[in-house]
Amino acid sequence: MKNIRSNFQTDGLNRIEELFTKMSENSGHNLDQYISGNSLVISDDITAELMHDIKIFIKEVQELIKETEEIQMLIPRLKRENDNNTNNDNFLEWLEGYLYDSVRPYQDAKCLRAADLDKFKRVTTYVFNNMILSNIGNEDIDTEIAEEKEVLSFRKILMTFINRVICYNDNKLYIFKNMDRRFGLSEEKCEFWWDIVNDNRDRLWKIMFMKKMNVMEDRLNQLMEYVQEG
CB–CB of 159/143 below 8 Å? Predict the structure, then answer.
């Protein structure tokens, strides 16, 4: 199993290197021209071939990092490949930040994906009753249910799900696709969350409303302090 993972990682990194080299060549060895501040900005005069290269590169590099969690290995390797060309440095810096931000949710959900359905339901029920409908505090988490880190991951991602259902009123199919894309959660697990959220919709609406109000109040207080200090 270790050899299979190692081969997958090596093949994946080689593939990403090839895509990066091709993309760099098609940009005139100047990918920095498409970076503005902290964003990737595609100009109107970009060729269809380069646009395709960029899309494929970003898609495949995300999938590789999801499977191997090797951002620390990938970026230095691409930088070595790019030693003689400084006009790609800003692109690589953007890429590193983008991968951390886009892949982190998937990595955070690793324990949710690994849990079988029985454990998933058990931990969800505990988190929902003790950390969402009420709040026992992190110091009182029952580690016999799951490790503290796992429990906190369940709470964080379940709150994301609740926010989409209650605050944004998103379509069920859209939410399920989004949870699969961002966190790798199966339809079966999402279905369990959907049922438990909808069974408590009124109570959750009040909780989410108060959370939003508290955030607004904190921001208003910060603004008042800033005005007073000025």
Answer: no
